[in-house]
Design goal:
Layout (H helix, E strand, L loop, with lengths): L2 E10 L5 E10 L1 H16 L15 E10 L10 H4 L5 H17 L4 E8 L26 H22 L2 E6 L6 H15 L1
Parallel strand pairs: 3-4, 4-5
Antiparallel strand pairs: 1-2
Helix pairs in contact: 1-5, 3-4
Length: 195
């Protein structure tokens, strides 16, 4: 289940008879995504929503504010001597939270706020720091579990700041090519937390 046959290799003997056959498979992306989503939903069933955060007393009824985070690559590691700029989990959390706070606090208190996580929020999507589709090795800062903790902390803090600024908040967790399954657990987790 979850795999496609993408080819076979057959070993024939000198007599022309088939001796061995290897079946080459690949993960069926749609079935895999559905399995991950089902597993995440099952894991989130017993999560109690966080207590309601009181909305602001005044908002501009005709306004909608969009706070967009795109290509954040939380979990990426860059060495300044090689790349010109450093990047790691600590820098990602500090820079992203500073940007989110500035965007939220400089916007009017709108009736609706959208936290638009546009994709590639995570730099890698499994216990191995590789791209999901092609298996390219990535420079990664730390373990996937730690990356997940930082990513959740950033998104929760952003959501809670927005809930104090806007009457209604919509959180979007779109998938990128670096984090197709990470976007699934983000959607499931935040739906369970803020239902």
């Amino acid at each position: 289940a979850g795999y496609l046959i993408k080819g076979t290799s057959t070993l024939f003997g000198q007599d022309g008879e088939r001796k061995l056959q290897w079946v080459k498979t690949a993960i069926d992306a749609d079935k895999y995504r559905a399995m991950v989503e089902a597993a995440c939903r099952a894991a989130a069933e017993d999560i109690a929503p966080i207590p309601v955060i009181e909305a602001p007393t005044y908002t501009e009824e005709r306004l909608l504010t969009v706070v967009t985070l795109t290509d954040c690559h939380v979990g990426m590691l860059a060495w300044a001597k090689e790349t010109g700029e450093a990047w790691d989990l600590d820098i990602a959390e500090r820079v992203l939270m500073d940007a989110v706070i500035r965007m939220i606090m400089s916007s009017p208190p709108s009736r609706i706020g959208i936290l638009n996580q546009l994709g590639d929020f995570l730099h890698f999507d499994s216990l191995k720091p590789i791209t999901p589709e092609h298996g390219h090795l990535l420079d990664a800062d730390s373990r996937y579990q730690k990356v997940v903790h930082v990513a959740v902390r950033i998104m929760r803090r952003a959501a809670e700041l927005m809930l104090r600024r806007y009457a209604e908040v919509i959180l979007l967790a779109n998938e990128g090519n670096h984090d197709p399954t990470g976007s699934v657990w983000q959607r499931v987790l935040f739906q369970a937390l803020y239902e």
